[in-house]
Fold:
Amino acid sequence: SGVAGLVRECHFAGALTITNSASIILPSAANITTVAGDVGVFRYEGSGIWRLVSFSRPTISTAEVVSAITPSAGAITINLALGNMFTVTLNQNITSISITNPPAAGKGGGYALEVKQDATGGRTMTGWPAAIKWSGGTYSPTATANAIDEVTFRTYDQGTNYRGTYAKAYA
Structure:
């Protein structure tokens, strides 16, 4: 019990079944079996009712797979089934960008794309999906030869919408 709005973060040390009930409300009303390292965030709604508002299952390693994307005929595909970190070297202008395999229903995700200019530089990148809403205007790469930018984007609704941000001209 507690004050409505109270939030508690629970770190699980092993297997435990969190059972959906009238007093513990879980997403999709599906029970969750935890493993060591899982983290659940619960919000108290009052009257003895707790709601799971966030649940994560960290990987054993903090290292992530980095997938290289190769431009072809002015297009790239960011396949989210391959992971959440990507690189692309601009050796041509990109006019079409697609994002495939967004998270399943009830899931969100965050992704990073390292964009490198080749030794020629001046390559452009247009054709971002309309689902990406940019902070500070639509991203376009730094034109300097061998420049490196980082583009990040997140979805909270299974890829219907993304929030995009970027940092430019890493030296």
Observations:
- The mean pLDDT is 91.
- The first strand starts at residue 7 and ends at 11.
- Residues 153 and 164 are 4 Å apart (CA to CA).
- The two ends are 52 Å apart (CA to CA).
